[in-house]
From TrEMBL:
<dbReference type="InterPro" id="IPR037128">
    <property type="entry name" value="Quinolinate_PRibosylTase_N_sf"/>
</dbReference>
<dbReference type="GO" id="GO:0004514">
    <property type="term" value="F:nicotinate-nucleotide diphosphorylase (carboxylating) activity"/>
</dbReference>
<dbReference type="Pfam" id="PF02749">
    <property type="entry name" value="QRPTase_N"/>
</dbReference>
<dbReference type="GO" id="GO:0034213">
    <property type="term" value="P:quinolinate catabolic process"/>
</dbReference>
<feature type="domain" description="Quinolinate phosphoribosyl transferase C-terminal">
    <location>
        <begin position="107"/>
        <end position="278"/>
    </location>
</feature>
<dbReference type="GO" id="GO:0005737">
    <property type="term" value="C:cytoplasm"/>
</dbReference>
<dbReference type="InterPro" id="IPR002638">
    <property type="entry name" value="Quinolinate_PRibosylTrfase_C"/>
</dbReference>
<dbReference type="GO" id="GO:0009435">
    <property type="term" value="P:NAD+ biosynthetic process"/>
</dbReference>
<dbReference type="InterPro" id="IPR022412">
    <property type="entry name" value="Quinolinate_PRibosylTrfase_N"/>
</dbReference>
<feature type="domain" description="Quinolinate phosphoribosyl transferase N-terminal">
    <location>
        <begin position="22"/>
        <end position="103"/>
    </location>
</feature>
<keyword id="KW-0328">Glycosyltransferase</keyword>
<dbReference type="InterPro" id="IPR006242">
    <property type="entry name" value="ModD"/>
</dbReference>
<keyword id="KW-0808">Transferase</keyword>
<comment type="similarity">
    <text>Belongs to the NadC/ModD family.</text>
</comment>
<dbReference type="Pfam" id="PF01729">
    <property type="entry name" value="QRPTase_C"/>
</dbReference>
<dbReference type="InterPro" id="IPR013785">
    <property type="entry name" value="Aldolase_TIM"/>
</dbReference>
<dbReference type="InterPro" id="IPR027277">
    <property type="entry name" value="NadC/ModD"/>
</dbReference>
Length: 295
């Protein structure tokens, strides 16, 4: 079972929720009683981070059988995992494991919705999610995006060259072609990406030889017009990649794909509602109908 986070990172999540023991379980004196805990999908969902959730349960002292893997599209009621062990282990790990799956499966499910909508209109289009996730959660965010069928746009500032208007504000009147030349010398193995907010800026970037033009908050009609204009530039041997960014979601992904964008850049999945995971817990030997459902 391969996890996204390290053992130490996952153990810290558990420690954060149970820093000094489980007071209720200890006070009731039920910690040694053997039990079973089952997770299932309460509604259709794309599963994410289940391996990390299972590891958390195992760290707490229970054994886990995974019944589905990250990236799986689950129907309502589909089983996710079953854990067995002492009540102390099950109750200690239950909520952290459940919440981890719910939050990141929500991201994966929304990602898959965008990917499916876009590829229904353009099967070869790529969808990339930005780095605008909650600070400190990048490992989980990237894994959830992957489970949903997309890729990360950029994992951080150290990874790619992306010139924003905010960078150009410090360059004064330096012509764009000179900016490109400087970047080709400084980072010769990297593609040069630029964010533009107007069609004129996009055309200027194409003339200057940028590899990727990230069109920020363009409408699908604007993207279609830009693609046509750039395709007509006979003096370019290879046209730049056109990325539609800003406001891209499952509702408009198909329109951007039909407009001719090569890439959709989005942050929408990070705002997705968590998926509801049903959890049932019982003492060992109790038949399934007697399992107690917990929130």
């Amino acid at each position: 079972m391969v996890t996204v986070a390290s053992r130490a990172e996952l153990e810290r999540l558990l420690e954060d929720d149970v820093p000094h023991g489980d007071l209720t379980t200890e006070a009731l004196g039920i910690g040694a009683v053997s039990g079973v805990m089952r997770f299932s999908a309460r509604a259709p969902m794309v599963l994410a981070l289940v391996e990390d959730a299972a590891a958390i349960i195992e760290f707490a002292g229970a054994s886990v059988e995974l019944l589905a893997s990250s990236g799986a599209a689950l129907v309502q009621g589909a089983p996710i995992l079953e854990a067995r062990g002492p009540a102390a282990a099950l109750l200690r790990s239950w909520k952290v494991a459940q919440t981890l799956i719910e939050i990141w499966s929500g991201v994966a499910t929304e990602t898959r919705a965008i990917v499916d909508a876009a590829r229904a209109a353009s099967p070869r289009i790529a969808v990339a999610c930005t780095r605008k996730n909650i600070p400190g959660t990048k490992r989980f965010a990237a894994a959830a995006v992957k489970a949903g069928g997309a890729v990360m746009h950029r994992l951080g500032l150290s990874e790619t060259v992306l010139v924003f208007p905010e960078h150009r504000a410090f360059l004064g009147d330096v012509p764009l072609f000179q900016v490109v030349e400087r970047l080709r010398v400084s980072a010769p193995e990297k593609k040069i990406v630029i964010e533009v907010t107007t069609k004129e800026g996009a055309l200027a970037a194409a003339v200057a030889g940028l590899d990727v033009i990230q069109a920020e908050k363009f409408t699908p009609d604007d993207i279609a017009s830009l693609v046509q204009r750039i395709a007509a530039m006979a003096y370019r041997s290879t046209r730049p990649i056109i990325a539609a960014a800003g406001g891209v979601n499952a509702g408009n992904a198909a329109a951007y794909a039909r407009a001719g964008a090569d890439l959709l850049v989005t942050s929408a999945p990070y705002l997705a509602k968590p998926n509801d995971v049903q959890v049932r817990i019982a003492a060992a030997g109790v038949k399934a109908p007697g399992l107690i459902e917990v929130a």
